[in-house]
Structures are given as structure tokens and as C-alpha cells.
Design brief:
165 residues, alpha/beta, 5 helices, Glutaredoxin, 6-stranded mixed beta sheet, 8 strands, two-stranded antiparallel sheet
């Protein structure tokens, strides 16, 4: 377990500055099964038909502390238009995630992946890392790291995907 945390920390250091990674060819988002706070399984495929922003984060990730409230704000603004923002927590110990969440009130759904299967399936290379998924379930945009100006990119990408049929 400690090895996975060290691996993620190494990925964070390699990730460096935040930036958008253009999806050369859209690929289907993996149909991972995550856990709701109460342990209920949630399949990512259940969101097909909506534009979805999936963000991988952990309580120990410093940039995640800045991105979490910004993503929640985005969720509150865009959810009425059918956009889902899903924060996937990767903490190995749930108590760390729970302490973070208690200190950061939010409305967006937070799902959990304590085994770390989802970041492997998605190909997460740093923390935080976000994937913008279109209505067909294809990953169209990827962001690694976080800077305040990434919110503008999210908005532009989501607007583009909402306008597609």
C-alpha cells in the first residue's frame, strides 16, 4: 500500500506544470466500478449520454487542495445543464479522504477507489488528473496537474461537447 502512495507521489513530481493533453484519437473511457461513500458500487458507464469530467485526486496531493473547490464550483454551475463532475479519491485509507472532505464542503459526487484500479485503467500519469468525456463515453480531453486557468479550458471543452449531437 505504501508503495502505491510513493508511486503516485513520483507521478506528481514527474507531472510538473499543469497542462492539457490533447487526445490524438478519442478512446472509450474504461467502464470502471467505483464506490459511493456508503459503499454502493457505481459504474462509470451509468453516466453515458452526459458530458462527464472525471478527476482523480487524493488528500495528500497539494494541487488537489486547490482544484477540489474549483471543480465543485464547476459542478454546481454546470450540473443543471446535464454535466457531471466526478471526483475519484485514491487515498488508501478512507479516514484521510473523510478528513479532507469534512474540511472542504462540496456538492459534487465523490467516489472512491481504494484499490487503485481506475487510475491504471485510465492511464493516470500524475495528480490531479482529469478526463473530459463526451456523451458517447469517449475521452476527448485530458488534463494533468492544476492551475487556476484550467477552469477556462474545462468550460470551453464542456461547451463544445454539449453542443455536439
Amino acid at each position: 500500500m505504501i508503495g502505491r502512495a510513493c508511486a503516485f507521489l513520483a507521478m506528481l513530481l514527474v507531472a510538473g506544470a499543469a497542462g492539457r493533453l490533447a487526445a490524438a484519437t478519442p478512446r472509450q473511457a474504461p467502464d470502471v466500478v467505483l464506490q459511493a461513500a456508503d459503499g454502493t458500487p457505481v459504474r462509470l458507464a451509468a453516466f453515458k449520454g452526459k458530458v462527464v469530467l472525471v478527476d482523480f485526486w487524493a488528500s495528500w496531493c497539494l494541487p488537489c487542495k486547490a482544484s477540489f473547490p474549483a471543480l465543485d464550483k464547476l459542478y454546481r454551475e454546470l450540473q443543471p445543464r446535464g454535466v457531471e463532475v466526478i471526483a475519484v479519491n485514491l487515498d488508501e485509507e478512507r479516514k484521510n479522504a473523510d478528513a479532507f472532505l469534512a474540511a472542504h464542503p462540496h456538492q459534487m459526487p465523490v467516489l472512491f477507489d481504494p484499490k487503485g484500479d481506475a487510475p491504471v485503467a485510465f492511464g493516470v500519469k500524475g495528480m490531479p488528473m482529469s478526463f473530459v468525456i463526451d456523451k458517447t463515453g469517449a475521452i476527448r480531453f485530458t488534463h494533468m496537474g492544476y492551475r487556476g486557468n484550467v477552469d477556462l479550458s474545462y468550460r470551453q471543452e464542456i461547451a463544445q461537447l454539449l453542443s455536439e449531437r
